[in-house]
Design a protein that fits this description.
This protein is of the alpha/beta class and about 575 residues long. It has helices at about 10-30, 50-60, 70, 80-90, 95-100, 100-110, 115-130, 135-145, 180-205, 225-245, 260-270, 275-285, 300-310, 310-320, 325-330, 335-355, 370-385, 405-420, 430-440, 450-470, 480-495, 515-520, 535-550, 550-555, 555-570, and strands spanning about 150-155, 215, 255, 300, 360-365, 395-400, 425, 475, 505-510, 525-530. Among the domains are: about 1-60 and about 395-475, no CATH class; about 235-330. The protein is built from 25 helices and 10 strands. The protein has an 8-stranded parallel beta barrel with strand order 1-2-5-6-7-8-9-10, surrounded by 8 helices. Helix 7 (about 115-130) crosses helix 23 (about 535-550) and helix 9 runs parallel beside helix 16 (about 335-355). The chain is globular. The protein starts with 9 loop residues before the first helix and ends in a 15-residue tail after the last helix. Keywords: FAD, Flavoprotein, Oxidoreductase, Proline metabolism.
Length: about 575
């Protein structure tokens, strides 16, 4: 029950609401300024809007208690709890987790795949994964529903850049990308289609009010090398806009007038036979028809520029360049153009099916060298499938990245300009080790926030922006109890009902059950992320999850304490079941 309905004073709630709205407005203005303001900083302000006094006030006046182990674990057997406790303890041993890939390889060599996979299947797989195929998902999802929780189906296949086989001496290579790779992407598309249909079927069978979700990874639908090449092209296109403005003899304001556009075009591109084409391109990028006497005169900013820069437009710009510059160096080949269209075709096929089946499609975030390509494709899907006020397509924002404030605010602004609903999943991030290693090896600035406090602040700041916007939807994908408490408090401040459909909570299977099940039991929209696949397919997923979250696992003392408390209560039924008064973070 929301605290605003159970005793929090109207004055307190109104004061907090005003403060939150002001903070959200400032965050948006800083990240995406008007044309007359200085450009946004590349590093977000690390202030945290988390107000512990208000959060505690809401918690004290609410029936929701994240430490209620009886409610959280009522659908778990004692053996389930013992396994969960043991697995979380093992995952908290960081030296062991760091060597997990080598240990699995050693076990394969010594014990063989059959025995190794059997052990993994009945321990870590059972804890963190849902099933080996779609058929195994259905009974699990029905059990979840009994606890007020729904599932997000995730076929746990993922890919990264790999070293290609060396060419044989004197062999003529016809194609850079293997035909087999495209066939694998087509197969992954079919698997994701099955996943979407399963999500819809289970939802229909159980007659639930909750929305069915399915998750996809873009690296499963296109060659990772292609995604990296596309990302490089997109980044250089944005840098070109920045160079155009930097060349002007005036302070940077983040936009170009028509006259400034003409000057920039004449510097970088060959003059067209018809001079009017330069003006036509300006208005094409703006997405509007030319009009005389418009006040104030239109200005072209990075949001307009990024929206209009599709593959065909970029190709024409490259062909028109006066000299071969950075953009020309990363322009796609004809083969890559065709493959990029095939990639979007697969994504569009999945989005269309999801729309038809009433399923929301959640696109996972991946490494930063893939993300510009992922974002560009997701934006195209959102423009088409989120136009009618429904959130069919969700994009994911990693709040451990310094660029997240600017990126989310720009996307929110795009959605307002173009009339579609922004749907966002907020996560802290799962590639920190790999990202920092790559930045160090390649000599560019670390894209990750300097400390965990800045990441928490970024998460809360952007979550508040999403909650403050009446049209946006958000998935709070977090295992942090403090963040969940903050979300509940902000929902109270903004008068957002638990079952409004605007806010969803999501945690991975096998983690933070005390958050998911207590939220679900109190009518909040609560989900478990359900990765599935054959054991050998999901091993990379399990290893990466363990390695990237080893710090989280090591610090999950509170969660393990709740498990141990419930185990003790069941073994000794005469023990007093006293809810822990601590609100510490899991």
């Amino acid at each position: 029950m929301l605290a605003s309905r159970t005793g929090v004073s109207q004055l307190s709630r109104w004061t907090h609401l005003q403060r939150s709205l002001a903070t959200a407005t400032r965050a948006t203005q800083q990240a995406l300024p008007p044309a007359t303001s200085p450009p946004p900083p590349t590093t977000a302000t690390p202030s945290d809007i988390y107000d512990p006094k208000f959060v505690n006030e809401v918690a004290e006046n609410s029936d929701l208690n994240f430490n209620d182990t009886g409610l959280a674990f009522k659908n778990k057997t004692t053996f389930d709890l013992i396994r969960a406790y043991a697995v979380l303890r093992i995952c908290g041993i960081e030296p062991l987790v760091a060597r997990s890939e080598k240990l699995i390889g050693l076990s394969y060599s010594v014990l063989g795949k059959t025995i190794t996979n059997f052990v993994v299947r009945h321990t870590f797989f059972k804890q963190f994964c849902a099933a080996e195929d779609e058929a195994g998902l259905i009974p699990l999802m029905k059990r979840l529903e009994k606890g007020g929780v729904s599932g997000i189906l995730d076929y746990a296949v993922e890919a990264d850049l790999t070293t290609h086989r060396e060419e044989r001496e004197n062999e003529v290579k016809v194609r850079v990308y293997e035909y087999e790779g495209e066939l694998a992407c087509d197969h992954a598309t079919e698997v994701f289609e099955s996943c979407i249909r399963t999500a819809a079927t289970v939802s229909q069978q159980k007659g639930t009010r909750s929305r069915p979700f399915a998750a996809i990874k873009v690296t499963a639908l296109g060659n990772p090398k292609l995604l990296k090449r596309m990302s490089e092209m997109i980044v250089e296109t944005r840098r070109l806009f920045q160079r155009m403005e930097d060349d002007l003899e005036r302070p940077t304001i983040g936009s170009l007038s028509l006259e400034e556009w003409r000057l920039a075009y004449s510097k970088y591109f060959v003059d067209p036979e018809d001079p009017a084409m330069v003006d036509e391109l300006f208005y094409y990028v703006l997405g509007r028809e030319p009009s005389s006497g418009e006040e104030p005169p239109p200005r072209l900013d990075i949001v307009d520029w990024s929206r209009s820069m599709n593959i065909d437009v970029i190709s024409k710009l490259v062909d028109s360049c006066k000299t071969r510059g950075p953009l020309a160096e990363v322009a796609l080949t004809e083969e890559e153009v065709e493959l990029s269209r095939a990639l979007f075709g697969r994504l569009d096929r999945l989005a269309k099916l999801a729309k038809e089946q009433g399923v929301s499609l959640m696109v996972d975030a991946e490494q930063t060298y893939f993300q510009p390509c992922i974002d560009a494709n997701v934006l195209m899907l959102q423009r088409h499938y989120n136009m009618d006020g429904t959130a069919t397509i969700y994009n994911t924002y990693q709040c451990y990245l310094k660029s997240t404030d600017e990126r989310l605010s720009q996307d929110l602004d795009r959605s307002k300009r173009e009339g579609w609903k922004l749907a966002a999943k907020l996560v802290r991030g799962a590639y920190m080790v790999a990202e920092r290693k790559l930045a160090s090896e390649n000599g560019y600035p670390d894209p990750i926030h300097d400390n965990i406090e800045d990441t928490h602040a970024c998460y809360h700041r952007n979550l508040d922006v999403m909650l403050a916007d009446a049209d946006a939807e958000v998935m709070v994908a977090s295992h942090n109890q403090q963040t969940c408490e903050f979300t509940v408090a902000q929902m109270s401040a903004y008068n957002i009902e638990p079952d409004s459909g605007k806010v969803h909570f999501g945690q991975l299977r096998g983690m933070s059950d005390h958050l998911t099940y207590n939220l679900g039991a109190h009518n909040y929209s609560a989900y478990k992320y359900l990765p599935y696949g054959q054991v050998h397919e999901v091993l990379p997923y399990l290893i990466r999850r363990a390695q990237e979250n080893s710090g989280l696992m090591a610090g999950a003392v509170h969660e393990r304490g709740l498990l141990l408390k419930e185990i003790t209560q069941r073994i000794n039924p005469f023990a007093n079941r006293v809810s822990a008064s601590s609100n510490s973070t899991a």
